[in-house]
Amino acid sequence: MLELNTKKVYLNEKEIASMQPKINLLFKNNLLNKEGIGNEFMDWIDYPETVKEEVILELEEKVNQLKTLKVNHLLVIGIGGSFLGAQSAIDFLEGKLASRDKVLFIGTDMSSSYYSQMESFLENKEYAICVISKSGGTLEPSLAFNFFSNKLKEKHGSKANDYIVAITGNKGILKDFSTQEKITSFEIPNGIGGRFSVMTPVGMFPMIFVGINVREMLEGAKEAKRFLLKESSLEKNTALRYAVIRFLLNQNQKDNQLKITHEIFTTYDYDLEMLAEWWKQLFGESEGKVSTKGIFPLSVHYSRDLHSLGQIIQEGPKTFFETTLIVKDNSQKPITFIKDINDGMKINYLNHLTLEEINQKVFEGVLEAHYQEGGISNIIIQLKEKTPKSLGYLYYWFFISVTISGYLLDINPFDQPGVEIYKKNIKKNLSD
Ligand code: PA5
Questions:
Q1: β-pair type (127-133, 164-168)
Q2: pTM for this entry
Q3: Residue 82 and residue 369: Cα distance in Å, rounded?
Q4: Are 327 and 386 in contact (CB under 8 A)?
Q5: How far apart are CA 401 and CA 197, in angstroms?
Q6: Is 79 close to ligand 1, i.e. is its CB under 6 Å away?
Q7: Which of 37, 146, 386, 417 is 20 to 30 A from 138 via CA?
Q8: What is the pLDDT of residue 144?
Q9: Exposed, middle or buried: residue 376 (CB in 10 Å: 0-12, 13-18, 19+)?
Q10: Which residues contact 304 (CB under 8 A, 6 or more apart)?
Q11: Is the C-beta atom of 203 inside 6 A of ligand 1?
Q12: DSSP state of 117
């Protein structure tokens, strides 16, 4: 399902193998026995197996109800872990452009222009709202929910709540509000943090709305679990290997070289761009706890950013390594180019290649330039197919990896005290 290629990394196998004893300990104590700090937020480990079929059936039933009401647009309101997972999955499986017509997202900023555009777009459409917040009181989504649920009230009067679904924790403002207003609600398990919640109702409801097979996604996660919790060998367990390589690149400063403090997640397919955003939250929020530890996660999209950041990446300060995600997409019909008799654009020499094949050549050329000439370590994650199953596998793979990454740094990978600090400050400023 997933291959990790680490041939273009400036580390040798001896260095990687030296981490095996430490990894064996963390694997047994912190992953299998869940004895590490923050373990109360590790319910995601078993969730793909323990989630009840009734939960999925209820989610499907609510989607069907909305379809009966002729709803064909879903406005998802949420931020951070209550937003990125759903959008990453929908873009990945439905396509970035195609999916925008069915599922729209708001509640991630305070842009008056974006609110107005959304209001105009939805004006004559049949839409429903899916409001997602584990705590139930985050400012940005609360504002968007207030604004757009009132629009629904103007449109549907007393029936408005039939067009709303709330996904929230087992207590909090949103939970109380949905109980009081008799709004259909689904629970986010307490032991699963926002950034680990994509395969719970948080991600599943919007996915089901667009027709994604979430059971297959959970199958992928189960398959990852079987494989990744079986053994801790750094030659076989790719999720652990990814964690160790990142750790070593960050910690082992080579002579006369700058310390590697950043990781750039690289995509060559627009449908993966939001997955990079999801990955940034997962790693940034899990690892960034102490000023002297952790890797700052960044992302670029190629070819676009080759023409903006390509220069600094190739020749600027080498404080980073790259991680590229390549996904084989067999679902698309190949894009080919017509031979132009006059060859006006001088492109006929590429005539025998599909667009995907050309993209692959671009990737190989960039890889060589960055690794060989630029001296940049490159980790390559290759996913064999673009399906719900492979996506479930990938999400779970990253969960395992980030957990071990956090424990290698000796921090709690599952909390986010820094996020809470600014949330409190905003509330204080607004009530002053
Ligand atoms: O990972 C996290 O916990 C955060 O990024 C949250 O997902 C984000 O702040 C949204 O919080 P909530 O779901 O409580 O509205």
A1: parallel
A2: 0.96
A3: 38
A4: yes
A5: 16
A6: yes
A7: 37
A8: 98
A9: buried
A10: none
A11: no
A12: H
Per-residue pLDDT tens for 104-141?
999 999 999 999 999 999 999 999 999 999 999 999 99
Reply yes or no on whether 307 is catalytic. Answer: yes
Question: What is the per-residue pLDDT across 280-295, written as a single tens digit (0 to 9) for each?
Answer: 999 999 999 988 889 9
Predicted local confidence at residue 76, as pLDDT: 98
Q: Are 76 and 83 in contact (CB under 8 A)?
A: yes
Spacing, Cα 66 to ligand 1 middle (Å): 26
Q: Which residue type sits at 211?
A: G
Q: Is 162 in the pocket of ligand 1 (CB under 6 A)?
A: no
Alpha carbon of 415 to ligand 1 centroid (Å): 11
Alpha carbon separation from 52 to 46, 57, 184, 196, 215 (Å, rounded)? 12, 9, 18, 18, 11
Which atom number of ligand 1 is nearest to the Cα of residue 79?
10
- Decide whether any atom of ligand 1 lies within 6 Å of the 85 Cβ: no
Give the pLDDT confidence of 283-326 residue by residue, as tens digits.
Answer: 999 999 988 889 999 999 999 999 999 999 999 999 999 999 99
C-beta of 81 in contact with ligand 1 (< 6 A): yes
* pLDDT confidence tier of residue 211, bands split at 50, 70 and 90: very high
Q: Identify the active-site residue in 14, 182, 307, 428.
A: 307
Burial of 334 (0-12, 13-18, 19+ CB in 10 A): exposed
